[in-house]
Specification:
Layout (H helix, E strand, L loop, with lengths): L1 E5 L5 E5 L6 E5 L3 E4 L3 E6 L4 H9 L6 E6 L5 E5 L4 E7 L6 E3 L4 E5 L2 E7 L3 H6 L5 E7 L2 E7 L2 E6 L4 E4 L4 E5 L3 E6 L3 H6 L5 E6 L2 E6 L3 H11 L4
Antiparallel strand pairs: 1-2, 2-7, 3-6, 3-10, 4-7, 5-6, 8-13, 9-12, 9-16, 10-13, 11-12, 14-19, 15-18, 16-19, 17-18
């Protein structure tokens, strides 16, 4: 399998299969274009239980697999918001935990499931929801990034505090919790809300420069209402 990232504002990843039988999967509706020689199969991928779990984590109940029937077949998957498509080789990662909606597509050897925040405070107040996406296995995974990506490699014990909407994902070696902003003045006048995500190394952390949900909220507030 070979791939290339196409576009800047609304990018897509275009995959060219080297051999018949190679395949990629994505959430329902994630495919942008494909050549002849591709077979599509829609399924729950893991059964009803895993499908419902994906729905809770922001993905679709059904997943779609695209299998090459011949070498050179091409399929592309496009991002849904302005930003970047981030390729990740899972062979070089210690597993990955991502926010809901970050998954774009992956090879069949990548496992996608749900995981629960270890602390209730992280689930209810962390901005990512109580359920996160758990990604493991081997092969190539592609994530959607709002805005631009920022990758931090935290040393053991190193801490970074992030506005929760700017967290894309982190390796499973990274500790994840939520803390409150200190000081009443900061809470009411700081504009960052009540909570920050605290990530403690070791491991890689993937951040994004835009919080699309916050951006959409600002647009909605400016729209006239009757």
């Amino acid at each position: 399998m070979q791939y290339k990232i196409i576009g800047d504002t609304m990018p897509a990843v275009e995959v060219t299969f080297d051999a018949a039988g190679e395949s990629m999967f994505t959430q329902s509706g994630g495919m942008a274009w494909m050549s002849e020689g591709i077979e599509m199969d829609s399924n729950m991928r893991g059964g009803l239980g895993k499908g419902l779990g994906r729905m809770l984590s922001g993905e679709s109940l059904f997943m779609a697999s695209y299998k090459a029937q011949r070498p050179g077949a091409v399929v592309a998957f496009a991002s849904t918001v302005p930003g970047e498509v981030l390729p990740i080789n899972m062979d070089h990662m210690h597993g990955l935990v991502c926010q809901k909606g970050a998954f774009l597509c992956a090879q069949e050897s990548v496992n996608l499931s749900v995981t629960f925040s270890r602390k209730l405070s992280a689930g209810f107040f962390g901005g990512e929801g109580f359920i996160l996406q758990d990604m493991s296995g081997s092969g190539m995974l592609f994530l959607e990034i709002d805005g631009n990506k920022v990758i931090k490699d935290l040393a053991p014990g190193e801490v970074i505090k992030v506005d929760t909407g700017n967290v894309v994902g982190f390796e499973k070696t990274v500790a994840y919790e939520v803390e409150t902003v200190k000081g009443l003045k900061n809470i009411f006048l700081g504009g960052e809300g009540l909570f920050l995500t605290r990530l403690t190394g070791p491991g890689k952390v993937i951040l994004q420069t835009q919080n699309f949900n916050e951006f959409a909220g600002r647009i909605i507030r400016m729209m006239p209402s009757r």
